[in-house]
Amino acid sequence: MDRLTTKNSSGQYILSAAGTEQAALQKLAAFENMYDALLAEQDRVLCKIEALRAQNKTKSVTFQQLLAEKLQLATIISRFKLWEIN
């Protein structure tokens, strides 16, 4: 990934080169879109898990796969939060 920012001596991030504002905005938007999509997917998975629980299908393969997906999504989202991207 090509970086569009650098950290200056005071610890602030600045654009690496003049004229990269639009590219930086596009990249920021992509990260925001990805984060929103992860949250939406997490909600979808949680709803499916609850529906299977209500049907007492907690031993099904689908339920187990959804639990694994829930953990995977939670891990990815927690990485975003770790780097204060939320």
Question: What distinguishing features does this structure have?
Answer:
86 residues; mainly alpha; two-stranded antiparallel ribbon; 2 helices; 65% helix
What structural class do the secondary elements suggest?
mainly alpha
Q: What percent of residues adopt helix (DSSP H or I)?
A: 55-70%
Please give the order of strands in the largest beta sheet.
1-2
Radius of gyration: 19 Å
Distance between the termini: 20 Å
Low-confidence regions: none
Pattern of helices and strands: EEHH
Give the overall shape: elongated
Q: Describe the biggest sheet?
A: 2 strands, antiparallel
Number of strands: 2
Q: Helical stretch count? A: 2
Explain what this protein looks like in three dimensions.
- By secondary structure, this protein is mostly helical.
- 65% of the residues lie in helices and 7% in strands.
- The protein has helices at 21-54, 61-82, and strands at residues 5-7, 13-15.
- A two-stranded antiparallel ribbon has the order 1-2.
- Strand 1 (5-7) and strand 2 (13-15) form a beta hairpin.
- Helix 1 (21-54) packs antiparallel against helix 2 (61-82).
- The chain is elongated.
- The relative contact order is 0.10.
Brief sketch in words of this structure:
The protein is mainly α and 86 residues long.
Write the SSE topology.
Layout: E1 5-7, E2 13-15, H1 21-54, H2 61-82
Antiparallel strand pairs: 1-2
Helix pairs in contact: 1-2
